[in-house]
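Colleagues,

For the teaching module next term, I've prepared a clean inverse folding example: a structure given as tokens, and then the sequence designed for it. I'd like students to try predicting residues themselves before seeing the answer, so please don't circulate the second half yet.
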């Protein structure tokens, strides 16, 4: 069977009995559940999925050798299986995994030896890599068949997906109970967004805030934002200049670029922006940094000083909440539209960019704010 057929067959098998694992060994099931539920690092689950798929596809390979650099007859490219088959499968079925290959993560790249239990992978959490490597060894030692490992990982991921969906639907229902409540004020929304930014793992949120603002006001601004890129996609890979690119309503030429930083803006950041502007085909009118950290006035002054040197390109540094406050007061009648769009962006972003707890936190915070519980 070809890899895609193997994955489809495994999925169909899992759907027939979603609650009963195929593997009897409690220790192996515990390892599978751990790598599937490890929210801090999703590389382990894609590693094991890729190696199990490869072993089923070609029985002669060693699942512990997913690197062609090893050079033996039973080694293989785990990255090839990951990028060409696992990626599409998890995206198609909305499985809670990283959207990018496990083999480019710092802990798993540049390895040229088998992933045996004695190898020490430098990555956190440590147990994730230990359990993932033990699962590869379980397949090699015939303690668990690769078919069953593949099915039980898929089963665990589907259960996580379904549990997540149930919690989100429950929170959305509770929000609907407040639909007749008095709409939040601008400052009420500011407090809500600040609370969300203060949550753990919120680095993606400034991008969604600015994207939601432009979507809400696009008709009035006569400008539109290009679709935002994946959280893990580098500008060099996508060809993007920044995190959000704005063009005029009837034109595809970029006029404004936003770059989000969850740290203090430095002169080097501005110099890098100038380089990207110079390499771009069309003229950029505005390059705007949005930061959640305090702004150094000397760096702000440096940005201002470049206007004449760049023949009229505005480079500005804004704090995220300050940007949002100004936008919401300027378009106060669009404030709830903004909030709804922001919510949709938060919920639709992959879990690798906006984690499930961060999604649930926003819905809970909004319900509390709209019911007056946060007063």
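(Answer key — instructors only)
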């Amino acid at each position: 069977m070809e890899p895609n057929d193997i994955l489809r067959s495994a999925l169909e098998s899992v759907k027939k009995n979603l609650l009963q694992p195929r593997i009897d060994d409690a220790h192996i099931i515990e390892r599978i559940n751990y790598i599937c539920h490890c929210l801090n690092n999703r590389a382990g689950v894609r590693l094991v999925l890729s190696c199990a798929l490869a072993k089923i596809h070609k029985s002669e390979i060693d699942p512990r050798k997913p690197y062609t650099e090893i050079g033996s007859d039973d080694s293989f490219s785990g990255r090839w299986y990951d990028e060409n088959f696992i990626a599409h499968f998890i995206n198609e079925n909305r499985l809670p995994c990283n959207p990018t290959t496990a083999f480019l993560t710092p802990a798993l790249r540049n390895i040229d030896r088998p992933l045996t239990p004695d190898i020490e992978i430098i990555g956190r959490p440590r147990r994730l890599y230990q359990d993932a490597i033990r699962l590869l060894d379980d397949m090699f030692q015939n303690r668990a068949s690769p078919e069953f490992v593949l099915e039980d990982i898929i089963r665990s991921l589907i259960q996580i997906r379904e549990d997540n969906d149930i919690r989100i639907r429950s929170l959305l229902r509770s929000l609907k109970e407040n639909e007749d409540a008095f709409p939040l004020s601008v400052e009420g929304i500011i407090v809500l967004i600040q609370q969300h930014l203060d949550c753990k793992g919120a680095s993606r949120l400034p991008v969604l805030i600015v994207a939601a603002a432009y979507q809400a006001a696009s008709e009035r601004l006569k400008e539109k934002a290009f679709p935002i890129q994946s959280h893990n996609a580098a500008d060099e890979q996508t060809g993007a200049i920044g995190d959000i690119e704005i063009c005029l309503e009837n034109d595809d030429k970029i006029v404004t670029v936003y770059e989000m930083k969850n740290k203090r803006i430095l002169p080097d950041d501005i110099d890098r922006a100038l380089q990207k502007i110079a390499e771009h085909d069309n003229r950029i009118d505005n390059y705007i940094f949005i930061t959640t950290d305090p702004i150094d006035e000397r760096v702000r002054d440096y940005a201002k000083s470049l206007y004449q040197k760049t023949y009229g390109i505005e480079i500005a540094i804004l704090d995220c909440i300050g940007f949002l406050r100004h936008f919401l007061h300027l378009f106060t009648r669009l404030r709830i539209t903004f909030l709804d769009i922001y919510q949709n962006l938060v919920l639709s972003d992959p879990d690798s960019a906006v984690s499930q707890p961060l999604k649930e936190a926003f819905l809970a915070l909004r319900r509390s704010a709209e019911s007056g519980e946060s007063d």
